[in-house]
Amino acid sequence: MIEKINIKKMINIRKARGMILLENGFEPKEVSEIITSGTIPKYLHKLISSQVDVDRFDYLLRDALMTGNPHGRYDLERILHTIRLNDSDEIYISKGGWYAVEHYLNCRYQMHKQVYYHHSTMAAQELLYKIIERARYIYDNTGISLNEKFIPLIKEDVDLKEFLEINDSDILIFIKIIRQWNDKILKDLSNRFFNRRLFKTFRIEKREAMKLYESKEKIDSIFNKRGLDKNYYCSHVDLSSKRAYKPYTPKPKDKENAIFINSDCSVEISEKIVSLEAIATPDEILLFLPENCVNEVNEVLL
Length: 302
Prior knowledge:
Mean pLDDT: 84
Low-confidence stretches: 1-11
Shape: globular
Distance between the termini: 45 Å
Helix content: 40-55%
Order of helices and strands: HHHHHEEHHHHHEHHHEEH
Strand order of the largest sheet: 3-5-4
Number of domains: 4
């Protein structure tokens, strides 16, 4: 039943996207062929979905500007002037742009490390998840009233239109409202969010992840001793599973995700610029927990 509902929802979303494209003079089939690299020339697909696509070019500079992080700034003009097209409609970078691309990829790596996966960013995100999760539980099980405007924030099946109408201000006002509810956990989590008392971050090498499972009972007892519900006061994120902002880590024969530097697209850029081999997705698990649990959990996992 759930699968049928999700399929129906996806069909409705696709129809809505199609209507938006038609209203703005675009043919939905042509757009979908560009995205899926169908009958449209390969270079159009690469320009919107590759390691050197317009989205990556845009978000990196924009995020660097909005976060004030200088490590996201690179020489876009040089890259654009050195992108070449071969006879097979494939994109490659001429020699004059190699080091501009190297800098661009290192900028992505630094933004990935210092902004997207910064421990404070991740901790705030996890805390927000827990606040919404607890608010949903209270709303579903107590019959407490809530302005209809904010119900989409705690719905598990929010639709596209509802999602697009949610902004940062809505979320902040929502948290201010729900922290007044008569619930100790929700009040504490909300106050932590506003006072920036985020959960502390504990890093674990993924190869040692089994320790989390083996130490479950001991970790549970640490939270029980302090009267904390582990469901809301502990969470973890596997960084290697994050897809949105992965650094440049192509496989040798991965033509879809590699950046080529010769006309027949047989040489990938890291083969000539060895520094790029050092750029890799962090293979870690981040564990988030209250400050008064860190030392004991650390002792258990060491």
